Amino acid sequence: MSLQVFNTLSNKKEEFVPIDGKNVRMYACGPTVYDSSHLGHARMAIVWDVIQRYLRFVGYQVTFVRNITDVDDKIINRAKELGISPDQLSRQYTFEFWRDMYALNVMPPDFEPKATEFIQPMIQFVKELIDKGHAYESNGDVYFDVASFKSYGKLSKQNLEQLQSGAREQVRNQEELANVKKNPVDFALWKGADKGELGWPSPWGYGRPGWHLECSTMIRTVLGETIDIHGGGEDLVFPHHENEIAQSESLFEKDLAKYWLHNSFVQVSAEKMSKSLGNFKTIKDLLENYSSDTLRLLVLQTHYRNPIDFTADSLAAAKSAVLRLVRAAALHSDLDQNGDVPAKVKEVVNEAEKQFSEAMDNDFNTAVAITVLFSLGDKVFQTKDATEQKAYAAALIRLAKVLGFTLTDTRNEIEPRTAKGVMELVLQLRKNARESKDYATADLIRKELAELGINVMDAPGGATWEKN
Ligand SMILES: [Zn+2]
């Protein structure tokens, strides 16, 4: 079976055939850097990470681009609240985002363009749209003329009339806005700004680009006019991706992307997890208590197109499930047997790899692929033969890596607060030994601790310790 992907554009599963043989050009919309990333961002990043890892695993040459939106009203408003510059705020959260991605074992994209680095290509894009009659200037703003693009609404399956009546409703009391646009659904390509605000000079005056424009421009500059896969969260289908299509396709008269893939969201108590609801957990908070493998399992055990219900129970269940895989994988390095792997074991491993590929070929069905990892983990413990165990553990590690799991064994790593408790216990045992005049044991404890780099100091109030 070949790889099948669900294309939002055709609303069905299609065979994946890249435009240019073995080369896959892929773009996913990245974060707007104005606040800490939460589990919703982690899901999106992990989903695109796994998709590109799998495409590379089956032999494609992938060029993956994920942008950073560092020009946005949300950034400007937040910076104003904090009394810092938008640039300072976006740099801070860009670094936080990178830190979180690294901690989540998300591979860096091949290119990571920032909006602020693409202002001139964006201005050029707008000029060309105006020249071609798809955009118009109005009071220092530039709007895309939606009526000039006949397929508007094709991705989100809406027609222009429905959209227009909805939009008219919204702008009824905003006479001013209604007067600057020809049509209420027209969207801004360029927005005029006051001097002193974040902005750049342009042929239409000082201002800044609209959000949708950056993705169209970056795709054109970095990847070309038509790409294989365009991805993002399902909340981006409308208006963001619809508007990217309108901009790029009206200018180039070519499809922007062959396949449009969208991941579903993370919900907490059946409500979408987002900052506005105030129920988000930051990635950093989560990683203080759970491993990146646990968060990855939590994300990947649900197919990317289905919503995830995030609960403390599901997190705890993912944690203990990951521990089973870690225990099985850890046996691989503990075993030094290198006998011939029996044919029946090879057969089981081949069958597992086949099932794994079939699941992933079926629109990246990680939920099923993960069950293959668990059955390999079970095999490790079902046999007592070291050669067989090692073969199963090796297959487990190999396939887990395709999904981005590290299976790092941290079972013997203890937190500083736990270490403090252990030291209190050791000093108590030493005190007991001294009280029963067992000085040999008390001295042994002191000597061994010194070798570990810990000095014990006796004082009238009791012994204390410090690292030397
Ligand atoms: Zn985008």
Describe this structure in words.
By secondary structure, the chain is α/β, with parallel strands linked by helices. The protein has 16 helices and 15 strands. The strands form five sheets. It has a four-stranded parallel beta sheet, sandwiched between helices. Helix 4 packs across helix 7, helix 10 packs across helix 11 and helix 11 crosses helix 14. The model has no long low-confidence stretch (mean pLDDT 93). It binds zinc ion (ZN).
In short, what is this structure?
By secondary structure, this protein is an alpha/beta fold. Helices cover 50% and strands 14% of the residues.
Characterize the main sheet.
Answer: 4 strands, parallel
Structure class: alpha/beta
Could you give the distance between the termini? 61 Å
Number of alpha- plus pi-helical segments:
16
Taken as a percent bin, the fraction of beta residues is 5-15%
Identify the overall geometry. Answer: globular
**Rounded Rg:** 28 Å
- The level of helicity is 40-55%
Chemical compounds bound to the protein: zinc ion
Low-pLDDT segments, ≥5 res: none
| Spatial sequence of strands, sheet with the most strands | 4-3-9-10
Q: Averaging pLDDT over every residue, what do you get?
A: 93
Q: Assembly type of the shown chains?
A: single chain
The number of distinct β-strands equals 15
